[in-house]
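B., you asked whether I could sanity-check this one before it goes into the benchmark set. Here's the sequence:
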Amino acid sequence: MKKNKQTNKLTEGTSSIVMDTQGKAINAGSPRLNNAIVTYQISRAEIEKCITRRIVHDLRAEPNNPLVSSGMDSVLFSVEGYDDDPRELFMISEFRRYIKKVHEYHPAWIYYASLGSKWLPTVALCLLKNATVVTDTRLGKNRIAFPGQELSDFMRAQLDPFFALCEMAGVPPEDAEKRVRDVCESFGMEPKSERTDAT
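And here's what the prediction gave me:
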């Protein structure tokens, strides 16, 4: 997620596009976003000043939004300017505030974010009050402990926006359900993915 640590293995036949913080690398309305892995860069200045208008616009839930049509699991979120900061992103108060503000507008992170990255756990760590990072001294690795109910609420709140984006993008229902299962499993949850239809 920090710029020099974000990695993802591209599959054969996919292209990679960078949407930089100045919009210079690519026009956000370009049809070239279709079927591409998109690295979406967020600047330190945007985070520290909590400027969310660009990402709110770029993640808008509209059929003509190229990030919607590029498909689920297609966006690698990348943060610039913290490479020399030893803290993880979720430990930075300005980043937590930024994520919370964006989340007010776009709760469907589970649609956009690539599961090949650590973005979804990072977002969850910013939003869930009781999530913690536990160090396994035996293995020398960190693991994230998410409280069950909070994590369930985090997922449930995203399902309706997620399925709406899937409909806009023409994602088959079975693929949408599989995506929810994959996201749940990535968090160590039992999948409960049935959509709730509006009445």
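One thing to flag: Helices lie at 44-48, 53-58, 66-69, 93-105, 109-112, 119-127, 148-169, 173-186. Otherwise nothing jumped out at me.
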